Amino acid sequence: MNTKAIVKGLQAYTTCDVADALLKLKVPHGGFLAGLTMWSPTRQEGPTKAIGPAYTVRYVRKSYENEPKPSGHYIDSIPSGAVVFISAPPRMINACYGGLMSTRAKYLGAVGTVIDGRLRDLQEHRDLEYPVFARDVGTTAPQEVVRVSEINAPVRLNSEDQEAVINPGDILIADINGVVCIPQSLAEKTLDLIQSQVEADEKVAADLKTGRSVADAMKEHRANVKQP
After folding, report:
1. Using CB atoms within 10 A of its CB, is residue 114 exposed (0-12), middle (13-18) or buried (19+)?
2. Gene3D superfamilies in the record, alphabetically (predicted)?
3. Annotated binding-site residue? 81
4. pLDDT tens-digit readout, 121-172
5. Cα distance between residue 173 and residue 175, in whole Å
6. Is 52 within any annotated ligand binding site?
7. Residue 99 marked in a binding site
8. Relative orientation angle of helices 3-10 and 187-208, to the nearest 10 degrees
């Protein structure tokens, strides 16, 4: 199954559905990337969903002279359908992504941006109705302290709580619950597992509304859930 078909298939599901499937596939934390939440088009509200292959951008401190220096601006080479993943150095005060970047990304067909760091120009992103997920907001542009070092290379999540790497082409899904990264090699298996577990949970929910116990409902309906 190609990437477009997988992305289309995932549209019906939430990040929680995907994380449940990834847990069965032994992906740590079900692929959840902690600390990244929705800021645009609204703050943690509504049905916004961004799903697509990761297009990664890594920022480094300006003092790191030995790091690569790509030519051109990363924003001009975003593939249509991609989710842009911006990696900023830990504990960075400056923002690393602003309204002009979303303007260009949306024009090129990107479906959303995830920022492992701060964003700025929040109202501009919202006016564009462009999905943006980030750690926090700020006011100051990045060039004072950082520069882009790598484009479409593996990046590590800046977290003291977990070890996670986002590779170019991994499928990112982001919604009101957070951001989940599906390893490219497991994307088809993940989609294959989701439907039966979602159907089982819908049946459990229906039973609970009639007064049935959780234990009994789960025992009946989850017994036949597809396994890896």
Report:
1. buried
2. Ribonuclease E inhibitor RraA/RraA-like (3.50.30.40)
3. no
4. 999 999 999 999 999 999 999 999 999 999 999 999 999 889 999 999 999 9
5. 7
6. no
7. yes
8. 10
